[in-house]
Amino acid sequence: MEKCVGCSTLLKNATGFFSTGEELANKTYICDPCSEKARTAFRNMNLGNVVYFKSYTSFQIQELLAKDVLFQNFIHHLVKTYDIAFSSTSSVMKLFLALIENEWTEHASNVFYGNIFGILLATNKRLMFIRDKSNITLPEIIDYRDIVSVDFVASEDRIDIGTPDIILSFSGILKQPGLLSGKIKRQVELIKGKPKPQTESSPNSNELSVFDVLERLGGFRQKGIITDEEFAEQKKKLLERL
């Protein structure tokens, strides 16, 4: 008896006209409820509509269903913790898909950027804004390293984010605007306080020292491989490095 790759339910009728499952590419099966979840996940992630899963493997379906669970947890967290409102899950999905490894939410709120309504998400790594009903694939991203000022205007529930090129004003902040401003400031300080990755390569322990090279050149001179003049010239260049 076959098992569903999504929920491990035993499928009494895995094949045939009255089957309760659908065959996948690697001769495994997915039950009807899990296939509906997978189809919904496909649509939510802007992957299109799927009629049959015949060309997908059990691993791909399991990865998709696992990612959908993470998304449902993400959206539940935004709604429950920060009272986030949205007209469709599409904008929230774009925020979710933009998250990178080891990135999590520090604070979030519905905001207005000018007259554009959307979601401002402050993570531990960067600031993201997505407008509601946006056709853009990815949210607008502001690197904390690019932020030069964070000003909270309490009388207007507004946060002004200053960058070298522009000041971005987010108003109508509904969820603890002062706390959101403080979180952004804190993350800017933390990120800017971290040392940037070193670009210079560390000395190679296997690399020959100047004196090793001089010794080898001396051996070449004694063997007649190089002349006295060539040795003197190379010696001068090497000693200039010290």
Question: What descriptors fit this protein?
Answer:
two-stranded antiparallel ribbon, SHOCT, PH-domain like, alpha+beta, SHOCT domain-containing protein, 242 residues, 3 domains, 7-stranded antiparallel beta sheet
Give the structure's gist in a few sentences.
The protein folds into three domains: 2-67, no CATH class; 83-193, Pleckstrin-homology domain (PH domain)/Phosphotyrosine-binding domain (PTB) (PH-domain like), CATH 2.30.29; 210-240.
Would you give an account of this structure?
This is SHOCT domain-containing protein. It comes from Chryseobacterium arthrosphaerae. This protein is an alpha+beta fold and 242 residues long. The chain has three domains: 2-67, no CATH class; 83-193, Pleckstrin-homology domain (PH domain)/Phosphotyrosine-binding domain (PTB) (PH-domain like, Roll), CATH 2.30.29; 210-240. The chain contains six helices and eleven strands. It has helices at 32-44, 58-82, 89-98, 177-193, 210-222, 228-240, and strands at 2-3, 10-11, 21-23, 29-31, 105-113, 116-123, 126-131, 140-143, 149-153, 158-162, 167-171. Strands 8-7-6-5-11-10-9 form a seven-stranded antiparallel sheet. It has a two-stranded antiparallel ribbon with strand order 1-2. Strand 10 and strand 11 (167-171) form a beta hairpin.
SSE inventory with pairings:
Blueprint: E1 2-3, E2 10-11, E3 21-23, E4 29-31, H1 32-44, H2 58-82, H3 89-98, E5 105-113, E6 116-123, E7 126-131, E8 140-143, E9 149-153, E10 158-162, E11 167-171, H4 177-193, H5 210-222, H6 228-240
Domain SHOCT: 214-239
Pfam families: SHOCT
Organism: Chryseobacterium arthrosphaerae
